[in-house]
């Protein structure tokens, strides 16, 4: 890669780190816990948040990133929580500045948890700090059980991972839940794992306990 | 975005266009048709190529891009066709130069089709020309039927789209195949659509006909 390209990328990354630190301070002062959800297109990020909005009591809001359209934000608003849409216009990940702009539209004093639904992508969002408390990875059964080995950059940075669409286990008899859990724990022994179906509600109780502070 | 960043990105893109043109000339002279497969992690790109290698007679080779590991290349080689692995080391898409390096390891005179399996990502790979004849989008039922609306940048550039994992239609009763086909044709009236299952073989016959020149 050309040296000038590396320099410019470094400087953009440095600006992002500074913006992320400012976000973190803003969230800390407002007493808001921020979770940054990262996963492939269609893995169930929006569905997990919809289910949470419907079934779990709490003061939540969501910043929803999409390359194009506000379809996900509309789905989330329909389930009854505040959603600030954020169309990236082609960019493959959210930046701290984008999140700041969207968060400023929200009344942070009215919420305890801010969920950031990142762009559907396992690669680019993993290295951009948005000022979150924790990155939350989402994988789903139909994607196959090799995702942790193939995208370690995300999973080594995430404090929690959803293994979603567990209701499809019979349809994917080769999917080795034990393997993916052991790959996750191999990267991070403290990884919090939720095995869920946002369709049937399976496993969502433990996630709600976590949100209610029961860990 | 800072002006210097735009300038450097422009210059990297310009280099990529030049390298893509050189690739195209190299492939044209060798009489190789090149298809660049782009889809989410776990949508079935590798499985489609494995099934094709096993069941369709032809002189094929594959360049397999992955951020980390050569797991997919190993799967493809096990099914009996030549696979050149290409670990991008963090980059979220292949570039024309990466493909050139991998293609130079292959004996192009021995093959008719070169499949490029891009990094699992619906965003970044869509705007990088690798010198292919055609971009081939792959979506799968579990991802949901809104992907064409959310990622038009890919589908407007692809000449063909696989709707894969059709064997799961009963498990996804809300998936509207008609809707996604109409979204695809809305972007490109000439879109060639294959409704397939690389697991059961459903719909793969039409793809094989295309490869054999029957369109």
What this model shows, in words?
The structure is a homodimer of 215-residue chains. Chain A has 215 residues and is of the alpha/beta class. The first copy, chain A, has a single domain (3-211), classed as P-loop containing nucleotide triphosphate hydrolases (Rossmann fold, 3-Layer(aba) Sandwich). In chain A, 38% of the residues lie in helices and 20% in strands. Chain A has helices spanning 3-30, 45-55, 71-78, 96-103, 147-150, 152-155, 177-187, 204-211; strands at residues 33-39, 60-66, 82-87, 113-117, 134-140, 158-164, 192-195. In chain A, helix 7 (177-187) links the parallel strand 6 (158-164) and strand 7 (192-195). The longest helix of chain A has 28 residues, at 3-30. The model of chain A has no long low-confidence stretch (mean pLDDT 92). The A-B interface holds A 1-2, 4-5, 8-9, 11-12, 40-42, 66-69, 71, 90, 92, 119-124, 140-144, 146-147, 149-153, 165, 168, 171 and B 1-2, 4-5, 8-9, 11-12, 40-43, 66-69, 71, 90, 92, 119-124, 140-144, 146-147, 149-153, 165, 168, 171.
């Amino acid at each position: 890669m050309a040296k000038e390209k590396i320099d410019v990328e470094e400087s953009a990354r440095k600006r992002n780190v500074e913006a992320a630190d400012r976000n973190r301070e803003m969230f800390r002062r407002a007493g808001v816990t921020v979770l940054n959800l990262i996963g492939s297109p269609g893995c169930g990020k929006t569905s997990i948040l919809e289910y949470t909005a419907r079934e779990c009591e709490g003061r939540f809001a969501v910043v929803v990133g999409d390359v194009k359209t506000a379809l996900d934000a509309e789905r989330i608003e329909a389930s009854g929580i505040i959603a600030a849409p954020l169309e990236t216009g082609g960019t493959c990940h959210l930046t701290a500045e984008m999140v700041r702009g969207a968060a400023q539209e929200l009344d942070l004093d009215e919420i305890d948890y801010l969920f950031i639904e990142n762009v559907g992508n396992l690669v680019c969002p993993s290295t951009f700090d948005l000022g979150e408390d924790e990155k939350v990875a989402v994988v789903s059964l139909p994607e196959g059980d090799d995702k942790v080995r193939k995208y370690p950059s995300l999973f080594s940075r995430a404090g929690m991972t959803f293994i979603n669409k567990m209701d499809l286990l019979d349809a994917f008899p080769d999917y080795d839940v034990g393997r993916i859990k052991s790959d996750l724990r191999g990267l991070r022994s403290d990884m919090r794992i939720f095995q869920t179906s946002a369709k049937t509600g399976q496993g969502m109780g433990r996630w709600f306990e976590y949100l209610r502070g029961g860990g």
